Amino acid sequence: MLERVKIFGIELDRLTMDQAVIQLLDWIGKPEYYGRYVVTPNVDHVVKLQKNAALSAAYADADMVVVDGKPVLLASRLLGKSLPETVPGSDLCPALFEAAKYRKGRVRVFLMGAAEGVAGRAAEQIGVRWPWVEVCGVYSPPMDFSVNSPANAMVLEKINAVKPDILMVGLGAPKQEIWVHAMRNQLQVKVILCIGATIDFIAGKKARAPVWMRKAGLEWLHRVISEPRRLFGRYLHDAWVFPRLVIKEWFHK
């Protein structure tokens, strides 16, 4: 049983990156297809969770919840519920692939998300960087994709036909978490990772922030500068709401 702390209505696992990778490899090594899934809350997720019941339910049932974002990490320490470090999905996937080099047999991965053709480029990059990882399928859903989409049954059939060890779902929050939560019992997959733009990063479609910005907790600034039209309003709203959630949590701890 993983050790958890509760803040902002979320139970987060007190795991380092290495510990998270070890746990995922253990789940992958088991013969059963349990559809265990991982979510990685950042400030935007925390804000959305307060009013999105479906996202809140997805978080409540997640098998691993690891913090993605320095503000949430710092808030945990301020509130006396210290988490060890951030475990962003965009770093967790490469770390998991790297560690898979030392296990017996190839790890099989299905990529679901990103624009048409991007997942294919990500698959090529994975083959070059981690040749012991086999990408056994890719799918780029339409923009309006959801559990009620006509394409949903086809996607399930496509994934279950290859029975991957890992399903990487990059639909963006809260869509990816809600879809995974609804479909987990119909998926013949060992581990499901809700990983946002990670497929784009691996493919080279989007650039990660420089390492120094990530270490300083400024990756959000790099993303706003890279995609101002899409992200400026969201980050402005989150910057207004999140401190109030921290204050509220402080008085109720």
Task: Give the topology.
Layout: E1 4-7, E2 10-13, H1 17-28, E3 36-39, H2 43-49, H3 53-61, E4 64-65, H4 70-78, H5 89-99, E5 107-113, H6 118-129, E6 133-139, H7 152-162, E7 166-170, H8 175-183, E8 191-194, H9 198-203, H10 211-215, H11 219-226, H12 228-251
Describe this structure in words.
This protein is α/β, with parallel strands linked by helices and 253 residues long. It has one domain (4-251). It is built from twelve helices and eight strands. The protein has helices at residues 17-28, 43-49, 53-61, 70-78, 89-99, 118-129, 152-162, 175-183, 198-203, 211-215, 219-226, 228-251; strands at 4-7, 10-13, 36-39, 64-65, 107-113, 133-139, 166-170, 191-194. The strands form two sheets. It has a six-stranded parallel beta sheet with strand order 4-3-8-7-5-6, sandwiched between helices.
